[in-house]
Amino acid sequence: MTHSDGGADAPAPEEVPSPRINPHIPHPARIYDYLLGGKDHFASDRKAAEALIEVSPGTREGVRAHRAFLGRAVGYLAAEAGITQFLDIGTGIPTQDNTHTIAQKVVPEARVAYVDNDPIVLVHGRALLTGDPAGLTDMIEADLRQPEKILADPAVRRVIDFTRPVAVILAGVMHFITDEEDPYGLVEQLKVAVPSGSHLLLSHITLDFADQVRREDFTKPYDNSTAPMVPRTYDETLRFFEGWDLVEPGLVEVVTWRPDLDEYQEEIPGGHAWAYGGLAVKP
């Protein structure tokens, strides 16, 4: 299998079953891939995604707005903040404008460690190794719920020098961590492990802009998936950045975080992307 925006000969997931991939259980990474217009998903993922669209007709456009925010934030980190190391956790299935692609356009020697726990993501992640030869890119199998293993992983250590500033990227992943799994404690372990000058890039699904939607209706498509959906409020999302200094404009809806005037802005049915995004620096 190849990168999800690879050639037309790339086989569909149904053609390459793996004993570690259950096509009957929806997975957030594959649902996201479907919403982005990718081709690496199963019927169960498509069904869950369509259920989301039924609840929120702007889901597809919101997901693309979410992705565009990630691109702008990574561009800022590489071009303005001087960051050359990126630890991207819960990266999802490779698509256009991945972290290493954006960062290495600005800083060819940028180093990116992608971390994910989904086998289908890891299969496609091998294509990520085709970054700029001046830099270094690797895909590591690990779970956000075990940050100590991520931080100690030899492959991560080969890519990331934790004595120098690092951008920790948690884009669209924390809303798959339940309160019982201690989301704030997990993020805190990552924050403690990096030095002053490091950045935290985080985005999170919210229902703050959707008073008309019942939480249980929105989260239901994920009830039978590999990870439930946990929308959080502004204050709950802001808490992830505690102790660090937010970069202007702070924690805002993803479409309003340093919008690129040259970037095509899709009209989102309902008017909102239903996601907060922010970037903060460690003092």
UniProtKB/TrEMBL annotation:
Region Disordered, annotated ranges: 1-24
Any single Pfam family the record assigns to this protein: Methyltransf_19
Matching InterPro entries: SAM-dependent_MTases_sf, SAM_dep_MeTrfase_SAV2177_type
Gene3D superfamilies: Vaccinia Virus protein VP39 (3.40.50.150)
Protein origin, superkingdom: Bacteria
Protein's name according to its UniProt entry: Methyltransferase
Species this protein is from: [Actinomadura] parvosata subsp. kistnae
